[in-house]
Amino acid sequence: MADLVRPARRGLMLILSSPSGAGKSTLTRTLSQKETNLDLSVSVTTRLKRPSEIQGVHYHFIDRPVFDTLRERDELLEWAEVHGNGYGTPRKPVEDALKAGRDVLFDIDYQGTQQILEKAREDVVAIFILPPSMAELRSRLVRRAEDAPEVIAKRLDNARDEIARWSVYDYVIVNDDLGAAYDSVRAILTAERLKRSRAIGMSEFVAGLLSESIA
User: Fold this and answer.
1) pLDDT for res 1
2) For residue 17, which phi and psi values (nearest 5 degrees)?
3) CATH code (residue 39)
4) How many structural domains comprise the chain?
5) Can you tell me the distance from the alpha carbon of 201 to that of 177, in angstroms, rounded to the nearest whole number?
6) Is pLDDT at 11 greater than 80 in this prediction?
7) Are 127 and 31 contacting, i.e. CB atoms less than 8 angstroms apart?
8) Count of CB atoms situated within 10 Å of the CB of 182
């Protein structure tokens, strides 16, 4: 007798959030490079494209009327206004990926996470990345040499507010070792992919097993 057709799997949305400097962007980049069947979500924005940016890779650059229409039609999973520019995640590409069994990776903050959780809780796996200490977080921001001292101070103030939201997330990882943190994220992704609730057609597969004759 031929082998039964193995059940398909619905994709999931994997969200990584953290305060600036805790390692979220590095983990996101590493995952997107190493992991198969994982699409990095590309946001839309109304801000102007920078010379180094590529349309459809870094962002989908759109004008304000298009953005407002997407928002009014509830075609954005999450959106925000930042420095006068609109940013958001288009709903359709994500839903198409999930239906096709592909996972989608998000590098977003608490506010974006909250919006997506409200709209699609059953499809979301949310992970929050913590620094080992506030002193270490400050050291990382200083070592990046990207911001003035007053900007670093502001980022640390914002970090306290973000860290206070940790309990919203499904998993929390303390990033005191980047390799270990990556392994933890990878283990979570593997386990979540195997959840019974994501297995489409598992009931039929099991019924086929039980009805199979082995005589």
Assistant:
1) 52
2) -130, 155
3) 3.40.50.300
4) 1
5) 39
6) yes
7) no
8) 18
Q: Is there a domain that residue 163 lies in?
A: yes
Q: How many Cα neighbours within 13 Å face the side chain of 42? A: 13
Task: Assign 3-state DSSP to the chain and report helix, strand, coil percentages, each to 5.
Answer: 45, 20, 30
Q: What is the mean pLDDT of the chain?
A: 91
Q: Which residues pair with residue 15 across a beta bridge?
A: 106, 126
Would 209 be classed as within a structural domain? no
Question: Are the C-beta atoms of residues 69 and 84 closer than 8 Å to each other?
Answer: no
In a domain, 65, yes or no: yes
Which among 206, 214, 16 is positioned nearest to 127, based on CA atoms? 16
> Which strand ranges, in their side-by-side order, compose the sheet holding 44-45?
60-61, 44-45, 85-90, 76-82
33 backbone dihedrals φ, ψ, rounded to 5°: -80, -35
Single-letter amino acid, residue 15: I
Please indicate, yes or no, if residue 204 is contained in any of the structural domains: no
Domain region containing 20: 8-199
Rounded distance between C-alpha atoms, residue 165 and residue 188, angstroms: 20
Summarised one tens digit per residue, pLDDT across range 60-70 is 999 999 999 99
